[in-house]
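Sequence dictates fold. Next comes a concrete instance:
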Amino acid sequence: MGASRLRKFLFNILFTAMLIIFAILPLNATALGKSSNSAIQKQMVYTTNWGYDLSIASIGSDDTIYTSINKTNLVSAVSPGGTLKWTAFGAENYTAKGDIYFTKYYENTTVRFYNSNKKLMSAVPNLISIKSIYGPKDVIYDAKFYAGELRAYYPTSKQHLWSKKYNRDRDISVFTDDENNAYVEAHIEDQWVLQKISPQGDLLWSRDFNAAQILPWKSNLLLIESDKIIYLDAQGNELWNVPVSDDVLARIADDGTIYVVKGFTWYYDPTIPTEMMAINPTNGTIKFKTTIPNAAGPADIRVDKQGMAFVSTVPRKDGNSKMDNPKYISQGKFIAIDANGKIKWQFNYDKMTPERAVIGPDQRVYVMLHDTIKHTTKVILYDKLGQKLGELDTNDTPQFNSKGVGYFTSGKSLYRIK
């Protein structure tokens, strides 16, 4: 009887110890990153009969999924449940005013605009390239590459609003902000300029331009130049600047905080640390600086709604190795840094680059890895604590519809993440 009680006593101790260990494990996992064998739940919803792989072009406001077929000029519209709505040739697509407008070439370079049910909205002649069409709202901008002209149209009619002329022998480009103002990078006489133009064609401001990266934030603008970061207000006035000494990559979070990773060195240089800093957009003060140990330059930055920054860095090469057979002396890294600048967890990838990441509506993170030797890709899913939840065999990160449902492609099939 005493032996039986002893065995029961020892069992209770062992069981309690196991509970304590399992309770502690998730806390340890947040520090270093933890792997799990759990698979991502997915469901195949659509497969193409064409002989090439699918990719997702975009998801419309009515949750229609627009897929493109690789090595062709085909676009297909697929319902959220997987029903094929239509397929069309000679097309690319983009989003305007919450709807998808399907654009199609003809011999006279007329571009036709369709809604998600393939109903013809309008036809605009003489657009040079579909890749030159921009604008999230009522106006589209056609930047005629190497023709020195910017034109504006309404997407649902043939009405030509206005056009502006620039140097004909130089490229021009354009992007828009939330109010559909156009920011034009162009060459006037012997100087590159950045101009802000209203949808009505009014020149709002113009300044000399030598930025490597430009990020709009509401009506403001962030310029990344070679030696400093400049923040402009809606009138083009400089609010503040922060000096930088290295090439940098920046991202603006939902609350306006500016996250910057600097210290790019493709080859090993121990004197140049890779550092991330967060900047207050109101006055340009530094919220925090964090050094990322033994990392090369950034490939991507993403920030979730809680201010957690996810930084991808490329593998670092040995500067003495050959380009076709490099030696890597640091791994590609994916690092989670909280809103106070503390590294919460990270993963290292041998000879792989985490090229970009997508934060899902449930705050899970999808990281696309590129194998630098085999030239293949895959997507790994992590939760916000750094727990690896599984992998996706796909060549791109998932996209999500208005209900937060994720979709991705693999081979000839479209999958829904359950």
